[in-house]
## 1
Amino acid sequence: MILLADKISKSFGGRTLYSLATLQLNAGERWALVGPNGAGKTTLLKIIMGTETSDEGTISFAKGTSIGYLEQETKLSGRRSALGEVMDSATEIKRLGARIHDLENLISITSDEGELEPLLEEYGRAQDRFEHAGGYELESRARAILCGLGFPVSDLDKPAKDFSGGWQMRIALSKLLLRHPDLLLLDEPTNHLDLESVQWLEGLHLDL
Ligand SMILES: Nc1ncnc2c1ncn2[C@@H]1O[C@H](COP(=O)(O)OP(=O)(O)OP(=O)(O)O)[C@@H](O)[C@H]1O
Ligand SMILES: [Mg+2]
């Protein structure tokens, strides 16, 4: 079990969106939440994310679950390029990379055996995690994701904020995919995607 939304009820101004709704997501599953405009799809995602409260019920996650949430509307700011924006989202990888760098320095100046051993152990673990998280291929993965979602290579260096809403959504989606969270919550991602990008996304395994 990755996520359990248990007996969730929610009303706005006397209008019931759901009553005692239960949803369980298990690893490897893909679910679609389908309903007309105003049915409460976005609200349920917000309840899961904790930015909206439910009237009744509980949300629980498996321990340590990482979540990526793509909101229905996206607005990017700042001066970073599309590629830079996506690469910068890999905060865990960047943190690990910085720690590996620090450990290398510490190891090079430590001569005491007793102090060296735990440093070497941590260094080994950090390198394993860095490799497992795709740290060595960060840029090539970011490029592959953006191109998979339809960006021409010549656009990757353009400022992210200069793209239209639909393309900004693709950049925001790329950021999530790069981090490969355990749980991806996408609010109407196909609104701005063409068939080719949808097919690429459907075929994507998050170990990319
Ligand atoms: N904060 C709020 N206060 C009052 N009513 C709200 C609030 N948020 C959402 N609603 C109402 O709750 C209903 C469900 O909204 P929600 O955005 O979850 O629907 P949706 O299924 O995502 O719709 P769409 O397909 O248009 O994105 C709508 O009638 C909306 O007006
Ligand atoms: Mg919505």
Note: Residues 41-42, 72, 187 surround magnesium ion (ligand 2) (CB under 6 Å).
## 2
Amino acid sequence: MSHSKYGLFTQAIHAGTAPDRETGAVAVPIHMANTFAFPTSQSGVATFAGEAEGHVYTRWGNPTQETLERRVAALDGGEAALATASGMAAISTAIMSVVEQGDHIVATDAIYSGTFSLLNKELPHYGVTTTFVDASDPQNIADAVHDDTRIVYLESPGNPTLALNDIAVGAEIARGAGALTFVDNTFATPINQRPLDLGADVVLYSATKYFCGHGDAIGGAIVGSEAFIENARTGILRDVGGIISPFNAWLILRGMQTLPLRVERHNANALQVGRLLEEHEAIEWVAYPGLESHPQHELARRQMRGYGGMVCFEVKGGVEAGARLMNNIELCTLTVSLGDTKTLICHSASTTHRSVPAEARRAAGITDGLVRLSVGLEDPEDIVADLDEALTAI
Ligand SMILES: Cc1ncc(COP(=O)(O)O)c(C=O)c1O
């Protein structure tokens, strides 16, 4: 059943599910099976050949995974989705489904470090090259695309700088060059931003983050056209094998039921934290797309419905002062990852973006003192008080 007539809160709960046909169970069943029996040898042959409905082997597809896929596709307004073992499995599967030896990618330089490594270190071994540009200015994308460019790869807001890419303009440039537009929408989630509506072709997620929302499962997702997803599902995903465990798919589905609720609260809490940091005398600078001081605030207002839960900043006194802040906090948790119920804080240059060479980090605006904050769902006054006290004690 199509759920497009429903709003995002409704779809987050209902899309892709119905009470279990056999048992009537209202909650989504977890199908922890690696194989599925064929009623007859003939039906087995037909299912194996893709000529009959049915499941064969969980690396090829599994009912719990497929429920997650329908839910993600509905929230993003996409034709289809593919659930994967991690965000990096989603990103690598989607890219490898498109490129061949000799192909070229243009990517934003404000990008998750795993994606940077994949594009900068791994794919060149297979003859696929990437030009990284400051994609906050679309002219840089236009200048970098050429005849062999197959993908314009955006991430908006970008990790960790919260630089934005104009998705509609980027997609127009990509289309003109005969390339596909990929957008990593992990920070925004479909609640705050729907890249397909803005002209993108493929949307990528680390479902580990806001989709899961409770810090207890790793997963990823790709959203795109039926044809794109089918090709990725029956090609790279099957052959490379980055499939999600049905149990993790179930945990993420469980989390997604409250995604719109949680994201609204993340948005509100992050804005309060952003305002505190903006005014705090111990802070050198702060970046949050929802603050008027963000250099691309106008673009954020145009292409986002909310500004997300991620904030980054630098403490006066740089790396050492930032380290003192992180040692002073009590409520916030000092760790990597993001999108959790809990507020998480980390130093990007030495952790999440350690694998990015210092020169590339600097080019992308990742200063040595940058502190990344994933604002959680606690009472905003408590998060603000924790940060305020920790900053004042520096
Ligand atoms: C924006 C973004 N994309 C992709 C990933 C990779 O996701 P995963 O860790 O689930 O593989 C991350 C992880 O932090 C991320 O922040």
Note: The CA atoms of residues 38 and 44 lie 5 Å apart.
